[in-house]
Design brief:
Length: 153
């Protein structure tokens, strides 16, 4: 292939530009305003239980696996920390499949999660935890306790 052929100038018609900029970028979708994230997730589990839900650095979870583990974590939070609706639970984890599991687990427990970057300075983390009055915080140490109590993990 000649070098000249790689440097060709392409001119788009007005219709082609519209298609690329408007039609192909039309990503809005309708969804029910009265459904929670947990309800929408459950519907997806029912539709595609064996499809990949989370893939992170070679670790894969299907929707069914993610549902099972997040249910276990939600139950654990209710039993161990008496998490109830509107309780705040910190999530202090690096990005991983466990962050997604934790978010869903907190929501399934009825609580709301507070994201806390574990790389923040210690003083900042302490301030967030105190300011939000988190009932508990899911970090690596807490996940270890959860894994020891859980049967399948």
């Amino acid at each position: 292939m000649k070098e000249d052929s790689l440097n060709m100038n392409y001119h788009l018609s007005a219709e082609e530009k519209r298609k690329l900029l408007v039609e192909f970028n039309s990503t809005e979708i309708e969804f029910s305003q009265d459904k929670t994230i947990v309800t929408l997730f459950q519907e997806q589990v029912e539709k595609t239980p064996d499809n990949s839900a989370v893939v992170y650095k070679g670790n894969k979870l299907t929707y069914r696996q993610l549902d099972d583990v997040s249910n276990q974590l939600g139950n654990y939070l209710q039993q161990e920390y008496k998490i109830r609706p509107d309780d705040l639970v910190g999530i202090k984890l690096a990005r991983s499949e466990w962050m997604v599991i934790s978010i869903l687990g907190v929501l399934k427990s009825g609580g709301a999660y507070v994201p806390i970057d574990p790389d923040y300075p210690r003083e900042r983390i302490e301030y967030i935890e105190k300011d939000t009055s988190c009932k508990t915080c899911i970090d690596e140490k807490e996940l270890e306790k959860f894994r020891k109590k859980s049967k399948k993990i």
